[in-house]
């Protein structure tokens, strides 16, 4: 029976939220080293307020697991689980405890690390609180799952539901995270690790700022497919968008905000790993250059039927041409002007051409 429960609830939970977990891991462990995590944990162990915030975040994760179990229990394909309540209560609760423990495994793993540090510093009060909270969360999750099993009417009681009105600029990022998480994670992991690696490599090289430009070029080309994805998303879900009364500049500004949000993690990575001797304003110009390049790729791909082979050939040619220009010393200011002028110019021309096409 436990194998069936794990397959329906535990495996499905981790599979459906794989993209979210990978993004969280990237944000948590991509920007913070083990030493910084240990320092953060030490601060939490010594501050009841910080520790309470950690417990609150764990509680949000608990609500997500409970909500998932409730949703699966009321799904039509799982209605046969209504007979599960015929199992004796102690056995049934033990099964739910096993399921809930497996679903809370990320929290329990991090809690174990905190317990080890608390034991090392002899913070018995914080250690006890962590153990009690984790046992309490497992118990609450198990009882909540059993409650839904015994009260299958979904109208009886609902978990708090927060409804947020997303602006247009967040439509595609939200869709990308929920529907194509693997594509999102691979794109951002490649770009982030590449920029971080180039920043770490910088002190050992003599190419001065050109090495950062090469890393930026590769990170941008790693996003070469995003423009086509945005175009396909809008053609499928936002069919009325071309008919809205917006000028080409207003539309371009909305895309600039959207890509700015998608490109924001790279700014954090660049600032966090900024090499010694590189001024802050250069990092900002570098990031803005990347944003303009993304908008140029978007303008080239948007609304067109693209041959994948020709597109890849164009990407490769762009890399060779960009690499040669960087090696011959084209500065970041020139790149900034070129990509933004190209993005605005091509977008205006292609938008005017689409308006003329019946």
Largest sheet: none
Rg computed from alpha carbons, rounded to a whole number of angstroms: 25 Å
Count of DSSP strands: 0
Distance between the termini: 61 Å
Q: Secondary-structure element order, as H and E?
A: HHHHHHHHHHHHHHHH
Structure classification: mainly alpha
Helix content: over 70%
> What spatial form do the alpha-carbon principal axes imply?
globular
Number of domains: 2
Low-confidence runs: none
Compute the number of helices: 16
Q: What's the average pLDDT?
A: 81
The percent range for strand residues is: under 5%
Keywords: Membrane, Transmembrane, Transmembrane helix
Protein name: ABC transporter permease
Q: Top keywords for this entry?
A:
ABC transporter permease; globular; 76% helix; 0% strand; transmembrane helix; mainly alpha; 358 residues; 2 domains; single chain; transmembrane
Task: Give a description of the structure.
- The protein has 358 residues and is mainly α.
- The chain folds into 2 domains: 2-150, no CATH class; 168-356, no CATH class.
- Helices cover 76% and strands 0% of the residues.
- The protein is built from 16 helices and no strands.
- The chain has helices at residues 2-16, 18-31, 34-46, 48-73, 89-103, 105-120, 124-150, 171-179, 181-201, 210-221, 226-237, 248-262, 264-272, 280-301, 308-327, 332-356.
- The longest helix is centred in the middle third of the chain and has 27 residues, at 124-150.
């Amino acid at each position: 029976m436990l194998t069936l429960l794990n397959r329906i609830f535990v495996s499905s939970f981790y599979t459906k939220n794989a993209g979210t977990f990978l993004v969280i891991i990237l944000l948590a462990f991509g920007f913070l080293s083990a030493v910084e995590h240990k320092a953060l944990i030490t601060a939490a162990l010594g501050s009841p307020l910080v520790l309470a915030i950690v417990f609150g975040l764990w509680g949000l994760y608990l609500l997500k697991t409970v909500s998932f179990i409730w949703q699966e229990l009321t799904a039509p394909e799982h209605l046969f689980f209504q007979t599960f309540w015929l199992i004796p209560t102690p056995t049934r609760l033990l099964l739910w405890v096993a399921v809930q423990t497996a679903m809370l495994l990320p929290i329990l793993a991090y809690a174990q690390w905190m317990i080890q540090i608390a034991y090392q510093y002899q913070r018995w009060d914080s250690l006890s609180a962590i153990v009690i909270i984790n046992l309490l969360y497992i118990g609450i999750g198990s009882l909540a799952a059993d409650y839904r099993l015994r009260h299958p009417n979904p109208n009886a009681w609902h978990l708090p539901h927060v409804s947020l009105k997303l602006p247009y600029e967040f439509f595609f990022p939200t869709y990308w995270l929920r529907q194509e998480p693997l594509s999102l994670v691979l794109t951002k992991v490649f770009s982030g690790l590449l920029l971080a690696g180039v920043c770490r490599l910088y002190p050992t090289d003599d190419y001065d700022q050109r090495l950062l430009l090469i890393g930026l070029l590769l990170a941008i080309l790693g996003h070469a497919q995003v423009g086509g994805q945005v175009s396909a998303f809008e053609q499928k879900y936002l069919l009325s968008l071309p008919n809205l009364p917006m000028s080409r500049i207003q539309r371009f500004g909305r895309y600039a905000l959207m890509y700015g949000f998608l490109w924001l993690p790279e700014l954090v990575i660049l600032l966090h790993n900024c090499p010694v001797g590189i001024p802050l304003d250069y990092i900002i110009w570098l990031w803005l250059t990347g944003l303009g390049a993304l908008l140029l790729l978007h303008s080239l791909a948007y609304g067109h039927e693209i041959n994948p082979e020709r597109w890849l050939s164009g990407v490769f040619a762009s890399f060779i041409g960009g690499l040669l220009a960087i090696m011959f010393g084209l500065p970041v200011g020139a790149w900034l002007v070129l990509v933004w002028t190209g993005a605005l110019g091509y977008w205006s021309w292609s938008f005017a051409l689409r308006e003329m096409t019946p």
